Amino acid sequence: MPSFDEVLKEAGEFGRFQKRVFFLLSQTGITFSSLFASVVFLGRAPHSFWCRIPGAAELSERCGWTLEEELNFTVLPLHLGNESVSGECKRLDVTWDTSVSCASPLARYGNHSTGNLPLAPCHDNWVYEQPHSSIVSEYDLVCGNAWMLDLSQAILNLGFLAGAFILGYAADRYGRILIYLLSCLGVGICGIIVAFSPNFTVFLIFRFLQGMFGKGTWMTGYVIVTEIVGSDQRIVGIVIQIFFTLGIIILPGIAYLIPTWQGIQLAISLPNFLFLLYYWVVPESPRWLLTRKKGEKALKIMHNIAKHNGKFLSPHYSEITISNEEVSNPSFLDLVRTPQMRRNTLILMYAWFTSALIYQGLVMRLGIIGGNLYLDFFLSGAVELPAAFLIIVTIDRIGRRLPFAMSNIVASIACLITAFLPEDIPWLKTTVATLGRLSITIAFEVVYLVNSELYPTTLRNFGVSLCSSLCDLGGIIAPFLLFRLAAIWLELPLIIFSILAAVCGLLVLLLPETKGISLPETVEDVEQLPSDFGKCGKKRKHRDTNSYI
């Protein structure tokens, strides 16, 4: 009986059918990256705001004050008396008396300097510069509540983490396309609820759920694409990352054109409902069907692929080799039970964690160093486009492992140099920082491809989901690590990023080289992959077909 790869070669490894499925599923990358980075625009900080005193509405009504006059009479005296207090997070804790004169509400305190008057922290009732619409002004995430904005991004990444485990497991057990479609539905529904959340608690709950379903769409779509193409065409796993970058580039345009945070949230959520139409055009992964002992359904899909590609399967292709490996519900133990699988899993988990932590850290760092938010964000996304092209021109020539390692090493060096460059040569500092962003983007994109190539079909979706869950853990830690360390020294996070990337660059050299090798079907296939650096080009015998690949 022919193997799946033999049948796929006969039907077309990357014909019209695969190109159509690839293009359709790649659109998920645009919506997922928009969700991933949306907090930058959903949580835009107001340019100015001030704390309104208790009873301000009654005072203003009695005296006929405008908001500007109220600011001058109740907040400006605080700043004049103590220049270190701006009136944003503290207010004068006094009794306001307008019975004598609305122009002198502090007259009862005589000649006392306002710097000697008692202060009280502001807990609510802030007034924001108009017009301003973000979750910061919607839910008062300022002053003592400012950390809640970081929490909202951490909650999203926690949703990604839950999605990696729950939906990764479900996709290996119940099918790729079913979980993909259910995830698209979940992202759309949760996104609408987030946009109209009556309070911050509801916002966090459904942002978590949207993150969980969002991870399901991205990871499952990615796995479907890599499983329906031949081993020589798996570079599509890198090309699909371009659509993730396109989402990053498009997002600032959406935010610029839509003035409210609710509108931005709906714009990045509603397109997911369109993906439900894929039910009629994207089939189940035939590789997955084979692992679930559904050879007839897999063969039917292969005939359909051949037909759309303008080819015809030979009559003797009436049955496809089904993996002899017993199918069971995957677990973490399956990923660490054998030596090669264990080493691959631990290194990949660290690589995912490092790539995500550094990538998100460098993105959020844009908000610390100032500048035009829309333009800076657009340019930072555009910088990522060359990453995919660099990978495409090198990865099939020199392999996966060397570019993977070098990109981490270059990112490490760039972060270290950026940290110690003086501020008076900003062009050089920006150039080196951009090189670091480009390098870690390459590492981030390569890990997707390598991860899917180092696990057997029976464990692939679960393995990719589990390892990439460390990416989500890095995303949870990134905002807190960045802002807390930056408060000590602005460049301190870059030092940490440099150390993490250097260690990762050395570790990935211990992974097997998968250039030109068919996707492993079983754990035994993974254990036979060459792991020594000098043997990356050695051919291995496929145990099902006795042919060399």
UniProtKB/TrEMBL annotation:
Lineage start: Eukaryota, Metazoa, Chordata, Craniata, Vertebrata
Gene Ontology biological-process annotations: dopamine transport; histamine transport; monoatomic ion transport; norepinephrine transport; serotonin transport
Molecular function GO terms recorded: monoamine transmembrane transporter activity; neurotransmitter transmembrane transporter activity; quaternary ammonium group transmembrane transporter activity
Keyword Nucleus: yes
SUPFAM superfamilies: MFS general substrate transporter (SSF103473)
PROSITE patterns, sorted: MFS, SUGAR_TRANSPORT_1
Cell compartment(s), UniProt: Apical cell membrane; Basolateral cell membrane; Mitochondrion membrane; Nucleus outer membrane
Keyword entries, A-Z: Cell membrane, Glycoprotein, Ion transport, Membrane, Mitochondrion, Nucleus, Transmembrane, Transmembrane helix, Transport
Membrane topology, record value: Multi-pass membrane protein
Annotated protein name in UniProt: Solute carrier family 22 member 3
A GO-annotated cellular component: nuclear outer membrane
InterPro entries: MFS_dom, MFS_sugar_transport-like, MFS_trans_sf, Orgcat_transp/SVOP, Sugar_transporter_CS
Family from the record: Belongs to the major facilitator (TC 2.A.1) superfamily. Organic cation transporter (TC 2.A.1.19) family.
PANTHER family to which the protein is assigned, alphabetical: SOLUTE CARRIER FAMILY 22 MEMBER
Recorded catalytic activity of this chain's protein: histamine(out) = histamine(in); dopamine(out) = dopamine(in); L-histidyl-L-proline diketopiperazine(in) = L-histidyl-L-proline diketopiperazine(out); guanidine(out) = guanidine(in)
Family matches, as Pfam families: Sugar_tr
Major facilitator superfamily (MFS) profile domain sequence ranges: 99-516
Chief location: membrane
Organism: Cnemophilus loriae (Loria's bird-of-paradise)
